[in-house]
Amino acid sequence: MATQIELERAGADSRAPLSRLFADWLYAFMREYCFRDDTDRIDAALWPDGAPAPGTRVLDIGCGPGTYTRRLAERHAGLSAIGVDRSQRQLTRARHHARRSGVDNCRFLLGDALRLPIADSTVDAAVASRLLMVLDDPERALAEIFRVLRPGGRCFIAEPRPGLRTTLPTMAMRLVEGAPGSMFDLPGAFDDDATWAALIGTQAWSSAITSGDGRYRYAECERPRR
Questions:
Q1: What one-character DSSP code corresponds to residue 134?
Q2: How far apart are CA 162 and CA 215, in angstroms?
Q3: CATH numbers and ranges of domains, the chain
Q4: Which residue of 5, 19, 128, 198 lies most exposed, with the fewest beta carbons within 10 A?
Q5: What is the pLDDT of residues 128-181, one digit of tens each?
Q6: Are the C-beta atoms of residues 64 and 84 closer than 8 Å to each other?
Q7: Are 193 and 212 in contact (CB under 8 A)?
Q8: At residue 222, what are phi and psi to the nearest 5 degrees?
Q9: HSE of 172 in the Cβ direction (CA atoms, 13 Å)?
Q10: CA distances from 80 to 76, 90, 120, 144, 194 (A)
Q11: How far apart are CA 76 and CA 39, in angstroms?
Q12: What is the average pLDDT across 72-86?
């Protein structure tokens, strides 16, 4: 049964202006077909010793149309994959794609990255891709990731570098997520590697490896085992 917040969000989505509905569709399309596919990187970062054990829980935060949630669930039949997103329309797409693909080991929840609807220390791994740049408080989002990971749990974070390649998807994401500021704002919080490393370092990880290339910055982190 739908919760009250889900019903309210669905109603708000159905009354959204055409610009936001178009942005919602555009973001879903680009997330599914145009963005870099980091599934292999995610797999290697979260489970460096091999495939996840049956029953492993992975959380995809800001999942959009559920691309990574679904791809990870498809790769690992014993995985329990959970996608969280603020947009009910994106979650509707995610559930549709999962059903169409015959994937039954993933589910999708309405929720805010700054207040995840997940209990403390209950997920084994987490993914956040193209999320932090549209949030007003990325440090709090990282704290939420740290909170929900079990001791020894790992997370993979990916953010595009500022530039022309990020302009259109960023505009769409700002509209879809209702992010503060102008829809024309480009990502600016991670303009250099030092700022990126400092942000990742705000949490007490036992291990935090930052890296990148010409288009993306990455972080692979592990929560202390004790």
A1: G
A2: 8
A3: 4-222 (3.40.50.150)
A4: 19
A5: 998 898 788 999 999 999 999 999 999 999 998 876 455 555 655 555 555 544
A6: no
A7: yes
A8: -135, 135
A9: 19
A10: 9, 20, 17, 19, 35
A11: 12
A12: 96
Q: How many Å apart are CA 145 and CA 223, to the nearest integer?
A: 10
Residue 26 pLDDT greater than 90, yes or no: no
Which of 68-72, 83-87, 181-185, 189-193 has the lowest average pLDDT? 181-185
Cβ contacts of residue 101 below 8 Å, gap of 6+? 70, 74
User: How far is it, in rounded angstroms, from Cα 223 to Cα 152?
Assistant: 5
Beta strands in 28-172 (DSSP E): 57-61, 80-85, 106-110, 123-129, 149-160
DSSP β-ladder status, 106-110 and 149-160: unpaired
pTM (two decimals) = 0.80
Q: State how far the Cα of 135 lies from the Cα of 179, in Å rounded to an integer.
A: 6
